[in-house]
Amino acid sequence: MNRTIKALALTSALALTLTACGGDDGGDTGADAGGGATGGEAGGLTGTGSGADCTIEEAVPVGAALSLTGPAASYGESQQKGLELAAEELAEVGGVTYDLVIEDDATDPRQGITVFEEFTSDRSVIIGPTLSNGAFQAQPIAQEAGVPVLAISNTAAGITAQGDYIFRVSLTEGQVIPQTVAKATEVYGLENVVVMYSNDDAFTESGYEVFASALEEEGVTVADTLTFSKADTDFRALLTEAKTSEPDALIVSGLIEAAIPLVTQARELGIDVPIIGGNGFNNPKLMSDGGEAAESVVVGAAWNSASEGELNTAFLEAFEAKYDAQPDQFAAQAYTGLHVIDAAVRANCSGEPDDIKAGLAGIADLDTVLGTFSINADRDAEHEAVVQVVQDGTFTVLD
Predict the structure, then answer these.
(1) Which residue among 206, 220, 327, 370 has the highest number of C-beta atoms inside a 10 angstrom radius?
(2) First vs last C-alpha separation in the chain
């Protein structure tokens, strides 16, 4: 493992111990957040020491429900790689190991429920599901069972409101989209736009609502609002209708499976204005499958490969060495998710669910590949966002 990653992981774990001792705003029912699990006799999932010195005999059981098949498979595959890389690195740090089990939710909320039911019986913490639709259905099962959940890609409003065991690594659409709209308005002088969104998905509907509010805030006129299904692949009729409004940009909230044909067909129809997408556009497939049509697409993001920091540089090197490919935002968020869980476990030196919950509630100013990372009183993530534009087949920061 890269020595930089190991050193930074140990430093972050030690630093987190100091911040996590502040307590749990969510009414923790387990060990005291000040280290109640750290002072007793070691055994099972309760260890000795804290932070970098924490030692737990048994591997902490972690479950991840990811979309490895179905419409969101490209996101889930990236998440799996990020988690597996993080697990390998953490195994080399020493003191704490993780029994990571990854199950496919098939991009189906019903399957997500089944996976969560299984995980609540033998996992101390659950990661996922990949999409907000599935999260809304599955999370109440974990909440009722008292098993903490860490959402790593769910950006819809209301995810953490489902209960005090629900936490989030991913920035919400409400945190990213307003920055995206403000930057795009500044750069492109937007005055008149057409909005398009998938109206049968919680994530894309939430994205649309934030886009509408942000455009109003920036004083941008919405000439038309057009809806489609997340299963649609032919957008020519809608795009022809949008073109008649002569917009300064198209604003689209949709998943990557819709984004690629929509962008491609827009360019074929001669629509050469900027296309501004929601978080669903954050996928290398946009460039690899969309080709030249993806140029000038603007997307707000939680992470960019050009982000500064030793930890991010080490992550990029390790990911490319293992997979012979560059990571995307979903890989980076998943990778961060397991490191956040490790910091929470080490804070109380315990792999018990309530102790992990207390540790997650205390995350503050943790160095991660996403930047300086905290979890706020609403159990949502807080860190810097970035606005990107596709240039020469890659996401670059929009200036």
Answers:
(1) 370
(2) 35
Q: How many CB atoms lie within 10 A of CB 215?
A: 23
What pLDDT does residue 11 have?
38
328/78 Cα distance (integer angstroms) = 7
Q: CA nearest 345: which of 144, 112, 95?
A: 95
Nearest to 358 by CA among 200, 135, 138, 125: 125
pLDDT in tens, 123-133: 999 999 999 99
Chain centre to alpha carbon of residue 26:
22
Please tell me the pTM assigned to this model: 0.79
In 3D space, the residue among 138, 90, 29, 8 whose CA is nearest the CA of residue 338 turns out to be: 90
Dist CA 55 CA 255 (whole Å): 42
* 337, 83 Cβ separation under 8 angstroms: yes
Token pair listed for 259: 């984004």
Average pLDDT over residues 134-151: 98
Beta bridge partners of 149: 126, 166
Mean pLDDT, range 364-373, rounded to an integer:
95
Residues 161, 361, 117, CA angle at the centre, nearest 5°? 60
Angle between the 3-20 and 310-323 helix axes, to the nearest 10 degrees?
Answer: 130
Q: How far apart are CA 383 and CA 55, in angstroms?
A: 29
Residue 259's H or E segment, with its range, is helix 256-268
DSSP assignment of 43-88: BTTB-BS-GGG-B-SSPEEEEEEE--SSTTHHHHHHHHHHHHHHHH
**Do residues 38 and 50 lie in contact, with contact meaning Cβ atoms separated by under 8 Å?**
yes
Tens-digit pLDDT profile for residues 157-202: 899 999 999 999 999 888 999 999 999 999 999 999 999 999 998 8
Query: Residues 89-118, buried b or exposed e (16+ Cβ, 10 A)?
Result: bbeebebbbbebebbbbbbbbebbbbbbeb
Q: Are 135 and 110 in contact (CB under 8 A)?
A: no
- How crowded is residue 165: how many other Cβ atoms within 10 Å of its Cβ? 27
H or E stretch at 372: strand 371-375
Residue 203 confidence (pLDDT): 84
